[in-house]
Amino acid sequence: MPERCLSRCVSHGLARLVTVAICWAAWSGPLAQSGEPLLRQIIDTQVQAAWQTAKLKSAPKADDATFLRRVYLDLVGTIPPQDETRAFLDDPDSLKRDKLIARLLDDPRFATNQATLWDLTLFSRQPPNPDVTRNRTLFREWLTAKFAKNEPLDRWVRALLLAEEDGSELFYAAYNNRPEDLTESFSRIFLGTQLQCARCHDHPYTDLKQQDFYGMAGFFVRLVVLDQGSTGSGEKQVKKYKIGEKGSGDVLFAGNMKDAKPGKKGEPVKPAFLRGGPLTEPPLPAGYKEPDIKTGTKSLPKPEFSRKEKLAEWATATANPYFARAAVNRVWGQFMGRGIVHPVDDFEADSKPALPGLLDALTQQFVAHQFDLKWFIGELVRSETYQLASTGPAKEALPKLYERARLRPLSAEEIIASLKTVSGDATQKTDGTTGEYFIRYFGEPTNGQGEFQGRLGEHLFLNNSENVRAFLRRKKGNLADTILTSTDPWDRRVDRMFLAVLTRLPSSAERDKFTAYLQSDPKPEPLVEEALWVLVNLSEFRFNH
Amino acid sequence: MSTSTCRPHEHLSRRALLKGALATTAGATVANWGGLFNTAAVAAEAKKHGKRCILLWMNGGASQIDTFDMKPGRSTAGPFREIKTKLPGYHICEYLPKLAQQVDKLGIIRSMRTQSPDHPDGIYHMHTCYKQSERVPHAELGAMIAKYLGQVDADLPSFVRMGPTGNAGSGYLGPSYEPFSIERGGKLPYFTSPYLPAANEARRNDLLRFMEAEHQKENGAGAYESHRVAKERAWRLLRAKELFDTTKDWPQHESLYGATEFGRSCFLARKLVEAGVPFVEVGQDNYDSHADNFVCHKANMQVLDPAWAGLLIDLERTGQLQDTLVVWMGEVGRTPTINNRAGRDHFIRGWTIVLAGGGVKGGVVYGSTDADGREVAENPVSEGDLFATIYTALGVNPRAKHFAGTRPIWATPEGAKPIKELLS
Q1: What angle do CA B230, B236, B242 make, to 5 degrees?
Q2: What ipTM, to 2 d.p.?
Q3: Residue A449 belongs to what domain range?
Q4: In this complex, which of A397, A456, A540 lies closest to B157 when CB atoms are compared?
Q5: Residue ranges of chain B with pLDDT lower than 50?
Q6: Domain shared by A138 and A256, yes or no
Q7: What pLDDT does B46 receive?
Q8: Considering only CA atoms, which of A106, A107, A116 is closest in space to residue A139?
């Protein structure tokens, strides 16, 4: 069955490729004369061509309320406050979406949100070395500063791979003495290539050999993590590291893991760029002696020849065949749900993407714009494709040809931030324990194929925990309080509750139901809290839709 | 997508559930909770079709030589004596006297040869049958059974875990198959007590249902459905939570299982599988006897013996034994060599795991170790073979295929074979 499925997909893919190429040719003629098309137009043209080929009917354009909530969450990591929602909905300006996007891209939360996303990409919910990576404050601050000044993606990744700036060291530090694991993560995240198969045996479905894996590992094998002590204690403890590099040492390759025997050490392998030939390396100076590294060694002299520098240079070069493609595909996936290559970090497995011309165009444009991430994201969210509705009877959360908007579960961080926005009480504390609960119950909501699954623990937490309740129950100045102290008629107050939580006005049936509910007992306080609880527990709230 | 083996819950029709609900309306025990809509029906269906599994997890790793693979007269023997069992010629430890009378129900594997010698990797490996170092998010046994034998409509969770057992996670199967973890003896975890009075709880839940029904009119996506289903499951679980309370029925069972927390957990496990929970894992602690192995093991066995034997007797008495597989294992065995602290260390070259009940032949001793217990002498069994045996006994395809990203993963690794001699 999977084999059959595969061949079907491949033939579809080919057919699509041909038609897209034809459409592309037909399209690029007339527009090219009237100036360069914007990336958002390229996206829409190509996606719409794919719908035609597949005879798909697309969803309508998302209404203002849906768009506002979606783009707010995607760009700044929270739902909007209700007064902004009301203002946006009432604004007659035909350019209001565009203006909102411009404003959010310049919001400081755009930088923190991007830093959170990339931090999770690099470390995942289950970081490789929890002791080292538990508190990543310094690293996140370093990343946030990069996004705040919109440093081009290739530049900050180069800085990450050089690990010489204060705060940049943690990616390497997490893989102390584990060059093989680091190779896997680096290749997956920045090259979109999963090498882990080739760690133990030649890749079963591609040309990747074990030698390719160990060739890449050779770039990392000389890294040394140097402990710089820590500041603070308990939850606030931040550990600091420096990354040193030795001048000698090679990774050992012992052949197929199946035939591994205890004591069999293997042959040294020289570094080689993935499908890019071996690294040219000068011989070690005669009589070279490796500096002594002991516990407490704080720094190492820079080696005469740095493999790390060569890797950073190669990986982020414009000519690198993987880097820009992997990056645009990953960011596309962030906003569109499904990568053009999907999963976003597995180019080897999905070698026949549905919209190959689009991936090419995104990559070319991204490189032509000097890896400007903010520009790129701005173009994505300005496209008609991004601004489609997600509604309809279809079961699938991530439509293959983007004919509807995707459904994405909110992250634990987005849920906390959104609950804070709902409550409107900036003093509402989320201490370490609360944050941990949210991450435990909302952190990893998908199965191995990225499909959302509701979990029992999530709902027990939502239903019965005071940690969630604290955002909803009456407290001076919060949403429940303002609703209760308001003298407006109840239906108006229902409108406010909907705007605050769901970023939309209620339907008339919903308004009637809630208005009746809130007046069903002489004591309104419990009713208001319960009604707010209902709104934050809806599947509509759980997803960015 | 996963393979499409036929799952019991697919046999469980709405009509069967409704019938079951009608049949239980008279059940007085649940009156305060407005009736357990599904529990009785699910239990009845599970009894007809469903296999279940109880895993007794010996946390730290129990000693094979001091239990089921004794080496009398050898330097590795230790001080414990042998006693006769129901099986002529097969002897076990003197501190397992009640179990000796149940050996006709046991399938004893004395030839486990495994690969992960320490606790974290052993716990992972013996819960998933895959090496932890592969760093693929494998799914643990309970999650797999929850997926294939669980019932979406059940009030109770499909995977319940009690006490010290370690945890490998539901991995690629996803969070729907995570365990509901409770404390030893059945105490429920955080967030299982509503902070609202029942009436408020009921009215707010109705309001939520109204909203979800409105939303569903325009939104068909499976992700929304999954959210709604999990919400309903959380509510149903609370309605059914008195099943976890053994205050009333424990006194009559105490003498059978032994008056210990572990005994009580085993009794609760029996109750839960009877109510249709397909997988329950119960942990017993303190087996990691690097020092004073014999003191530890004597004390542990005095708790284990009545609890395990009592569980088998009770399952048989309630007509559930033929459908309930009881697995006894930990992450490692213990060294034949006794160290200078009278301890035994971790051992993976030849150790013992015991199966009983559903799908397994009783009174079978499979495999053996050499005279001192240092190596497997015949029929080595790997983690994959063990899991293939367990899955086969439970009617789950051991080669069920799943995906982590684009990578295919099977329920057991290539080459794993069920032990035919143990399967009934």
Answers
A1: 135
A2: 0.90
A3: 409-544
A4: A456
A5: 1-36
A6: yes
A7: 57
A8: A116
